[in-house]
């Protein structure tokens, strides 16, 4: 169904040419004033910046600081003004009240010289009716108008009229309308996501403008604009809560680096850059990985029961020997009674400190116990000596000691004995055995590479089975070589371990190093400023002092930098995209980064590919939201045409019958098709189909004015439009080799290449003009969630889907029309 048909008020394009031209001319005149104002604002800002710089060489320290801050602010403003050149104004709303003027909506707000509003920022409350008005609830609007522009010229307008009476006769006859949305959706894909400020739909607007606090879950089928809405929400929140979010930063977690690059350009386009982008594999500072475990291992590592296992593994490292503690030190055999040691361990455990912090207490108490034993032994020796001396010298009777309980050692003696003992290697190694200082990496490596240790931790975890324990079938799956590299599924475990262990000194050292590096850079910069301003020669200030004084909360870029390095950083807001893929353990990590629980979670539980991912939001997130979980549903698919979505709906019915497929917004006129490949004929058939797609896209672009340079290589003609070959995981290398000109890895070139060979996981969140889906039966079989992978693959195309198969098609694809 064409969406324009759902707006009965949307006028047809059959309006008289002259009236349409008249409207365009009128809007052009308004747009000219917007650009004139933008140019003026740029000139003013540039002049202000030049003036600040020109004042550089003189003045007091305070003036200098003020000038620096002023220059930075002006430079930011200028960058913002420069970033809105394209599509500065894209909408207009006419209120029903005849007394009120129309409002123009744009990428930024502008006022004229008299401070009258010329243009309203799309994120401002006054702009909301532009996005939220519907024929049923027009929000006080008589008309919503979309302006199409190229450069600084108005090329077209689309109107939706909510109150015809409000428009005069000329305006009524000049109504024009082809839904701006459909025009936008017909454009070819570029490999980078683009902003949708001009065509945000009502249900998306609700997501974008939801309150900052609480956990907002946005569930929606493929192509419903979850990602793009989440990004616009980020821009909206940064605009509305700038102070909070600039200081604490916004974290965006995505499924893979390609996806992050795919969406990465949208925020700068919206004028917002103060954001940290990462994947789950990058959430733990110092480790960055994109390798994943096989599904059955990932399922175990992602289970919340791992938290209990790791807690048990840490307890296992807090050793309580079977007998008394004996240490040979300082020529003596020192002893701590087993029950005394066990009692002190229980006392320290009761404090519920992280392991490494508790170690400090254990060390202190054991040293005291050893020193006291040393004292006791020395005193006994002394007494014996004195007794012997007394017996010898007098009558043979024992002498009367002054007080048998008297302490011969002072507090200082005890302290110095403890210090000496601490330097004794035997004492140290005993303490390291009893209660070692551990890094998260060490804990995990030693646990997973030692079956005996792992089994002991499993046994220990079964003593406290509160959150469930691993079965005898599951725990052996964790075993691996000590040298094995970290996987994405290990990252939340490292974070959990870090939480249990606390600081071991290495984190502090890393932070100190980073701080030292920053200090040196600030000093170098300050030195430049001083030489430039002459203050250095005047001897008024040295670079270190200036750098130190200049250290405040700093610009948000450094907020992002600081946040990314600091495991304990509390972000102001966190956005998780393709959130269905995160395991329970990954959520524990994400929640630690956002103790205030201000999160936007977007995903589709029907697309979950990961074995440890979510099948229910309430189950996965309920425990963290404490009644503040709000779920919104997006139901309209803006990517996949009706014809392809019909087929995808069959897959969905087979793999997640409880889910409703989204409703597609447009038809392409082309049914998806199946091509049967004869055994051994993959290379020829694949090349033929791919070449056909590339040629077709090249021709379509030529038709729509996006003409590419002629070339004998069909892949060169598709610049701007893209084809993806989606293959089973285990055959990726094989199919990539059959198409050597295709990009086939997860570097940025995949996004820019006209042709790419990807697995379903790599294609998650991305979209292409045409998709060639290879060996669907094998995709289905590749994991317990293979059916969901197939659903993801089938919903990536904006125009055409071709399925290539050698084996018979799975029943869920029975509706496909085949070709020889
Ligand atoms: N209001 C809109 N105006 C124009 N284009 C839109 C709109 N909403 C979504 N789109 C486009 O639809 C496509 C799909 O959007 P997006 O990738 O955000 O969907 P998604 O729900 O995250 O999909 P998936 O679950 O498959 O990853 C994108 O090209 C996006 O730009």
Automatic annotation (TrEMBL):
Q: Which organism is it from?
A: Lipingzhangella rawalii
Q: Which UniProt keywords apply?
A: ATP-binding, Helicase, Hydrolase, Nucleotide-binding
Q: Where is the UvrD-like helicase ATP-binding domain?
A: 199-641
User: Which InterPro entries did the record assign?
Assistant: DNA_helicase_UvrD/REP, P-loop_NTPase, UvrD-like_ATP-bd, UvrD-like_helicase_C
Annotated residues that bind ATP are located at 220-227
Keyword ATP-binding among UniProt keywords: yes
* Domain of life of the native organism: Bacteria
Q: List the residue ranges of the region (Disordered).
A: 1-21, 378-405, 502-522
Give the protein's recorded name: AAA family ATPase
Composition bias (Basic and acidic residues) maps to: 509-522
């Amino acid at each position: 169904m064409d969406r324009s048909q759902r707006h009965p008020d949307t006028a047809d394009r059959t309006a008289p040419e002259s009236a349409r031209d008249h409207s365009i001319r009128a809007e052009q005149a308004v747009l000219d004033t917007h650009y004139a104002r933008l140019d003026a604002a740029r000139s003013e800002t540039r002049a202000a910046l030049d003036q600040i710089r020109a004042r550089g060489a003189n003045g007091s320290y305070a003036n200098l600081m003020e000038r620096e801050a002023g220059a930075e602010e002006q430079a930011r403003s200028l960058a913002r003004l420069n970033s809105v050149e394209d599509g500065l104004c894209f909408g207009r709303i006419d209120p029903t009240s005849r007394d009120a003027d129309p409002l123009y909506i744009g990428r930024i707000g502008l006022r004229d010289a008299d401070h009258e509003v010329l243009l309203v920022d799309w994120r401002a409350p006054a702009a909301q009716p532009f996005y939220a008005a519907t024929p049923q609830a027009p929000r006080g609007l008589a008309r919503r108008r979309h302006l199409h522009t190229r450069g600084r010229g108005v090329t077209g307008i689309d109107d939706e009229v909510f109150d015809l009476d409000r428009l005069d006769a000329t305006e009524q006859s000049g109504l024009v309308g082809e839904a701006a949305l459909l025009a936008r959706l017909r454009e070819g894909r570029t490999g980078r996501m683009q902003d949708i400020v001009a065509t945000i739909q009502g249900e998306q607007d609700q997501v974008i403008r939801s309150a900052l606090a609480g956990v907002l879950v946005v569930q929606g089928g493929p192509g419903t604009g979850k990602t793009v809405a989440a990004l616009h929400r980020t821009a909206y929140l940064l605009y509305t809560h700038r102070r909070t979010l600039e200081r604490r930063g916004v974290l965006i977690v995505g499924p893979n680096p390609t996806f992050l690059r795919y969406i990465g350009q949208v925020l700068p386009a919206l004028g917002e850059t103060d954001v940290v982008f990462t994947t789950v594999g990058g959430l733990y500072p110092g480790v960055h990985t994109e390798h994943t475990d096989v599904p059955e291992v990932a399922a175990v590592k992602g289970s919340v029961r791992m938290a209990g296992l790791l807690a048990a593994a840490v307890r296992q490292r807090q050793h309580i020997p079977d007998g008394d503690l004996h240490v040979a030190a300082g020529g003596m055999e020192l002893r701590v009674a087993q029950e005394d040691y066990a009692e002190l361990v229980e006392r320290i455990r009761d404090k519920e400190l992280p392991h490494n912090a508790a170690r400090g207490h254990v060390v202190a108490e054991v040293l005291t116990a050893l020193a006291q034993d040393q004292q006791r032994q020395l005193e006994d020796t002394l007494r014996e000596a004195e007794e012997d001396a007394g017996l010898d010298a007098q009558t043979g009777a024992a002498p009367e000691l002054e007080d048998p309980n008297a302490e011969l050692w002072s507090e200082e003696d005890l302290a110095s004995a403890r210090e000496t003992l601490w330097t004794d290697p035997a004492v140290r190694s005993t303490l390291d055995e009893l209660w070692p200082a551990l890094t998260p990496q060490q804990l995990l490596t030693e646990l997973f590479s030692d079956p005996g240790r792992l089994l002991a931790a499993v046994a220990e975890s079964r003593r406290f089975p509160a959150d469930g324990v691993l079965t005898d079938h599951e725990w052996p799956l964790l075993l691996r070589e000590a040298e094995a590299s970290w996987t994405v599924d290990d990252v939340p475990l490292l974070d959990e371990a870090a939480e249990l262990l606390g600081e071991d000194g290495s984190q502090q050292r890393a932070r100190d190093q980073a701080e030292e590096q920053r200090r040196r850079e600030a000093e170098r910069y300050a030195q430049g400023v001083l030489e430039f301003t002459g203050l250095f020669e005047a001897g008024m200030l040295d670079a270190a002092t200036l750098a130190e004084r200049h250290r405040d909360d700093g610009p948000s870029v450094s907020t992002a930098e600081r946040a990314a390095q600091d495991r304990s950083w509390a972000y102001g807001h966190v956005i998780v995209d393709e959130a269905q893929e995160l395991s329970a353990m990954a959520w524990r990590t994400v929640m630690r980064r956002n103790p205030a629980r201000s999160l936007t979670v977007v995903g589709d539980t029907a697309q979950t590919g990961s074995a440890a991912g979510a099948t229910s939001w309430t189950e996965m997130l309920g425990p963290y939201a404490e009644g503040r979980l709000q779920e919104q549903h997006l139901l309209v698919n803006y990517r996949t045409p009706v014809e392809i979505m019909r087929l995808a709906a069959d897959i969905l019915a087979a793999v997640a019958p409880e889910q409703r497929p989204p409703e597609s917004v447009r038809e392409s006129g082309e049914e998806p098709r199946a091509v049967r490949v004869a055994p051994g004929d993959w290379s020829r058939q694949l090349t033929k189909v791919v070449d056909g797609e590339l040629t077709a896209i090249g021709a379509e672009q030529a038709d729509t004015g996006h003409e590419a340079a002629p070339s004998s290589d069909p892949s060169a003609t598709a610049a701007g439009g893209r084809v993806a070959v989606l293959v089973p995981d285990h055959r990726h290398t094989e199919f990539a080799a059959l198409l050597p000109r295709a990009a086939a890895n997860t570097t940025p070139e995949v996004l820019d290449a006209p042709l790419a060979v990807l697995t379903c996981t790599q294609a998650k969140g991305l979209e292409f003009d045409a998709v060639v889906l290879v060996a669907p039966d094998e995709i289905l079989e590749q994991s317990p969630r293979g059916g969901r992978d197939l659903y993801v693959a089938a919903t990536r195309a904006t125009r055409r889907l071709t399925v290539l198969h050698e084996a018979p098609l799975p029943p869920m694809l029975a509706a496909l029309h085949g070709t020889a």
